[in-house]
Write a structure and sequence with these properties.
heterodimer; A: mainly alpha; Serine Threonine Protein Phosphatase 5, Tetratricopeptide repeat; globular; B: mainly alpha; Leucine-rich Repeat Variant; two-stranded parallel ribbon; 25 helices; 2 strands; 1% strand; extended
């Protein structure tokens, strides 16, 4: 009997030793049922559902339209657990940033819903509200790596459809996106600086990939020379095949300079 | 007559209308005039005109008096009930003693206002004057009974301060207590700020809110605690919220039911089902709304009976929605019946719920029924939209048979991927080749 008890305790100990970020959704639910006041479990559940929702839409209108019900459900679940985490952390920055990100994703889904103007105008609105939430989380704790990562990932995932509605002008569309891209580039610079000082963080974040992300965003902001610099740095840091492949992919679409970019644009419109 | 056709008539008319407007009393002035009449009736030295005083009481009965003015009127009426000296009349006399007549009117007015604080004054009047001639025995007894009923029905339980003691021992507890009191009795802004601060206090506040929900002396304190617990959404607090369903105050009860619904915890459904038969419509609506979120199959029979029992009320729409969420086919007959009744909102919710439950064949039968029984295409459209989770269109000025045909065509379009909005974008030839190679 004592040996059984010892085995049981050991098993429980092993189970509890597992990090929430490594658990499956079912395991996270079991852990949440056992202790609903565990912040990490609630946050992990919220983030997991948030990621699922983002993946399910994936910038494609037809996916959003055919999965409307499932996506509503995912949004509800994600919001539930993120709000729980927000309460338990006394309105800490990380759950707040994720709630902002969830609002941006919701904005994307409004734009892609295929519904009329009454629904579609909520896309830019939700985008603005969500971006505001992430920025306020950033103001609370500017050194928080997780918040910075959320902001970067969100910028990478803003679909062009978000600002592509007929109810928004070309100028507004550009301002909205470029402002966010600039912020994300600042965040990436901050993370790269921090990684130089903190080796543990550098291992966790994968510096080469951070350079690749910087290169892509610099390209979007028409800072082509900086983008090329980041690509070179990524290739010097890592020789892994997936990094090399991704770097080549980015390089293929990246003009060498602003002049080249202008030439390509003019060619597209048949202007010599 | 000549004056009316002279050019001076119009300015004269305008001036006289303006003068009359200046002379006419405003609402507040009018109320003050009526109160003056009643004050005269209370003053033992003054003599009154009975008709004018009765007119003043009648006007108060018709006017919507609220807030401080209402309290002033109640105070004067209780003073009138306490008067013992006979009144001196200036004008016409009355067969019934004028004071008793006025007191009977005062009791009627106090009954209308429904303030329980006036019961002692009415009881004192009954004790003192019930042996007198023309005493309004029935009116007074009924008033006391009605007001006492209000006390037992709606007044909160007499609460003690004992629950505060453990919280007063710590600094955090004292802070919570101060915030909860501000939440209960503070101004709108102060209460809002207090709620926000409590919500930002993390896990330690949960136990306090549970205590406040069950024991706070002020109903707004209990109600705000219920709201905050719903927002916090902690599963460990559900048993306490269920316990709070015994609450007598209607507003608190409404918030508790809504919070349990918001938390989507089935542990509360058994007690919430009982509130589907509450005497107040808004509680029935809240209970049905909560059952929509709880999706408890145990509530099936009760929901069906509810729709059958109540002929009007928004709770029927919510009950229909709840039946759709539960998804049991036994609800289909009642949903179909509700779908064709005369109340628009209930009809639409029933149609959506029906669309969730039925099979495709039954849905097509519905289109045939639409043609045969001349049903509204809007409801059929809603049923189709819910079933296929897609937008359906009803073309205007089209016969019902063509409308039915159009629904079938739209279903086929969705199935074959002809609907552009529901279809995956076409891949280029190169992409397809790459996929085939892979």
């Amino acid at each position: 009997m004592p040996s059984t008890m010892a085995l049981l305790l050991l098993t429980l100990g092993l189970c509890s030793a597992k990090e929430p970020s490594q658990m499956s959704i079912a395991e996270l639910h079991t852990a949440y049922d056992a202790n609903p006041r565990d912040v990490d479990v609630a946050l992990s559940l919220g983030v997991r559902y948030h990621d699922e929702l983002r993946k399910m839409g994936d910038g494609e209108g037809y996916r959003v339209r055919s999965n409307r019900k499932k996506m509503d459900d995912l949004h509800k679940k994600s919001m539930k657990y993120l709000k729980r985490a927000q309460f338990m952390t006394r309105f800490g920055p990380v759950p707040g940033a994720y709630i902002g990100s969830l609002t941006i994703v919701r904005g994307r889904d409004c734009c892609l819903s295929g519904r009329g103007l009454l629904v579609r105008w909520r896309g830019p609105l939700n985008f603005g509200i969500g971006a505001g939430m992430i920025d306020s989380a950033f103001k609370t704790d500017p050194d928080n790596v997780a918040v910075r990562l959320v902001r970067i990932t969100d910028v990478e995932n803003i679909p062009h459809q978000l600002t592509d509605g007929s109810d928004i002008t070309e100028k507004q569309k550009w301002v909205l996106r470029s402002a966010r891209i600039k912020l994300a580039r600042q965040d990436l610079d901050f993370l790269l600086e921090k990684c130089k000082a903190d080796k543990q963080l550098a291992g966790r974040l994968n510096v080469a990939r951070l350079h690749l992300r910087s290169a892509r965003l610099a390209g979007l902001n028409s800072k082509f020379d900086q983008a090329h610099q980041h690509l070179e740095q990524a290739l010097t840091i890592s020789k892994k095949p997936d990094i090399i492949e991704e770097a080549n992919d980015i390089k293929k679409d990246l003009p060498k300079s602003a002049d080249d970019s202008l030439d390509e644009t003019l060619k597209e419109f048949n202007i010599d | 007559m000549k004056f009316f056709s002279t050019p001076a008539f119009l300015p004269w008319l305008a001036l006289s209308t303006f003068w009359a407007f200046l002379q006419s009393p405003g609402l507040a002035q009018e109320l003050e005039l009526h109160l003056k009449q009643i004050r005269k009736a209370i003053d033992p030295k003054a003599s009154i005109n009975l008709d004018d005083t009765l007119d003043a009481l009648e006007a108060l009965d018709e006017a919507e008096v609220t807030g401080d003015s209402k309290r002033d009127v109640e105070k004067l009426l209780t003073q009138l009930l306490a008067r013992e000296d006979p009144v001196k009349l200036t004008g016409s006399s009355s067969r019934v003693p004028p004071l008793m007549l006025l007191k009977a009117e005062a009791v009627r007015l106090l009954r209308k206002y429904g303030d329980t604080d006036t019961i002692p004054a009415i009881r004192a009047f009954q004790k003192r004057d019930q042996r007198k001639r023309f005493f309004p025995q029935e009116g007074v007894a009924e008033t006391i009974e009605q007001l006492s009923k209000t006390v037992t029905d709606e007044a909160p339980k007499v609460a003690s301060d004992a629950w505060r003691e453990p919280w007063e021992k710590t600094e955090e507890g004292r802070r919570f207590l101060a915030l909860s009191d501000k939440m209960a009795t503070g101004s709108h802004g102060a209460a809002n700020r207090a709620r926000s601060q409590l919500l930002r206090s993390g896990n330690p506040v949960v136990d306090f809110l549970v205590d406040s929900l069950l024991h706070h002396e002020h109903f707004v304190g209990r109600r705000s605690s219920a709201y905050l617990l719903g927002q916090i959404d902690d599963p460990l607090t559900v048993p306490h919220l269920v316990k709070a369903l015994d609450e007598k105050h209607e507003n608190v009860l409404w918030t508790v039911i809504t919070s349990i619904g918001f938390m989507e915890d089935k542990r509360g459904s058994e007690r919430i089902i009982q509130h589907l038969d509450h005497k107040r419509d808004r509680i029935r609506v809240a209970a049905a709304q909560a059952l929509v979120r709880l999706r408890d199959p145990r509530s099936l029979d009760v929901l069906i009976a509810h729709i059958d029992k109540y002929k009007i009320g928004r709770s029927r729409a919510r009950a229909a929605e709840a039946l759709g969420e539960i998804g049991d086919r036994r609800a289909m007959p009642i949903l179909f019946k509700t779908m064709t009744n005369k109340h628009l909102v209930t009809r639409e919710y029933a149609a959506m719920a029906y669309g969730k439950i039925v099979t495709e064949a039954e849905l097509f039968k519905l289109t045939e029924l639409m043609v045969a029984e001349k049903l509204d295409p809007r409801e059929v459209q809603l049923a189709f939209e819910e079933h296929y989770q897609a937008d359906f269109f009803v073309h205007e000025n089209v016969s019902l048979s063509n409308c039915a045909k159009s629904f079938k065509e739209q279903v086929e379009a969705i199935k074959e991927g002809k609907d552009r909005r529901m279809r995956a974008p076409k891949k280029s030839e190169i992409e397809r080749e790459v996929e085939e190679v892979e």
